[in-house]
Amino acid sequence: MRQVSKSLVVIVDADAIVAQAFPKDSNHERAMEISNRLNALEARVIYPVTAILEAVTVLQARLNSGATAYGVAEVFSNPEIQTSEVNQKTYIKALSYFNVSTSKKNTMFDCVIMAIAKENNATAIFSFDKLYRKRGFKLASEL
């Protein structure tokens, strides 16, 4: 098992999971470059279970790629991959990022990512969504 940096913590959003798993995704090459960079930096990478579920759903339903969806779901059963569950504390924190005037592009899934990032004092969020930067988070592409 490789040594993991204690200082760099990155939370991964569903769009980054999809981009890595789906070669036809417009962000695939960038996602692979960022992933390789995070490995080189020995970052501690955390995958929220909600992001995994969202990514698997997108791959299966919208991109009609059942085999890829299954493969992604199976990968995250590996105990060496750090996942993060959503408990009531995380959910309540996520609600603080969500409100009635929230744009349809700012989903509750995104709010959970931000809550988990805060809980883990994350250095960055691995996503292509500019929302996170607007909310004061650094993106993994900036590392």
TrEMBL record:
Signal peptide: none
InterPro entries recorded: PIN-like_dom_sf, PIN_dom, VapC20-like
Domain PIN: 10-136
Any Pfam family hit: PIN
Gene3D superfamilies: 5'-nuclease
Gene Ontology MF terms: RNA endonuclease activity
GO biological process, one term: rRNA catabolic process
SUPFAM superfamilies for this protein: PIN domain-like
Protein name: PIN domain-containing protein
Species assigned in the record: Candidatus Woesebacteria bacterium RIFOXYB1_FULL_38_16
